[in-house]
Amino acid sequence: MNRFFWKYLLPLLLLAAGCEKTVVEMSDGGTADLVLNLALDGKPAELALTKASDPELLESEGLRTLRIIVSQGTPGQDGFKIIYNEKFTADNGSSASSPVLQYGTVTIPDVPVGQAGIYCIGNEESLGKFYNNETITAELENSPKLVMVDMDNEYFPQPEAGIRTCGLPISGHRTGVNVREGMGPINIEMRRLAVKLNLTVENATSSTLTLEGVSYGKFSGDRLYVFPTQNLDVPSDINYSDFAFGTAVPGGESIAIKVGPLGSDGSEGIYRAYIYPTYAFRGVTGENPYTVSLNVRNESGTVLTNLQDPRTFGEGHTFFRANTQVNIRARITSETDVSIRFDVMAWDEYGIDVPDFE
């Protein structure tokens, strides 16, 4: 990662459209410029990253807004305060191919020397948040990992279409930074606080089918840590529920994905969804909650009810970490049967291949 930062060090583009900034005046005790090198998926973090700037990235999976916060002291202890809080936004209008602003490097001037915390939050709107000084101070003092509770699952789970406005939550942080004159850059790797479910439906029958709905088992959590400290770090009081899309939701509209017969160009259909990191199965007692079921209609309009029975896809996995994707392949072999294969990979491994069916 160090080689990446030296190779791709970028100058700060000074102002993004719609920039809001808060700097707290400090008593004169010496200051230093703080240089941050931000990365996402092993690349310089770009504001408003779109499919146009990275063909391998799905629209809305990158940074749309970026808030950078610097604190002095330790949350919950005397002397803790926010000394810098700036939010950058990019006005890319209605076109995803509009010019983007890059933030490989950000320089924060005149940071007081001493211990500091650095907090970067991308797309706070995706969590319904606005982290001004008052809000971020209160929430960090309540939980240094910044727990976010989504009690009624208002913000997640989301289908792919549901993240087009606000994107996905993204974060990175460093605490206990010793700010001093002449210090080198601080490297911060940001990551998405979500798990991507890539469902590929393969039609191995001789007629066209329509995927109208998808339902999953009880593994969608109602809270997460915005600043986790481990690869697998979910709140201990998290609650899990099942979730569904399209006609699998009572009164829901069909997602209407046509899947042609075996051998045709359209014999596969893909449906994506996003959830918080999950540790829903402890693997000791109880049923595996990692299941999927399909609402499918054939050419004559008949709903294939046998495909609505839950099929397990998470064998051997008790959790799914943030910034990973779960690739599920459901092969419909008849109007009464479907076979499931799956694998798990890092978000930046863009392929969604899974083991072939035998």
UniProtKB/TrEMBL annotation:
Protein name (record): Major fimbrial subunit protein N-terminal domain-containing protein
Species whose genome carries this gene: Candidatus Cryptobacteroides merdigallinarum
Lineage of producing organism: Bacteria, Pseudomonadati, Bacteroidota, Bacteroidia, Bacteroidales
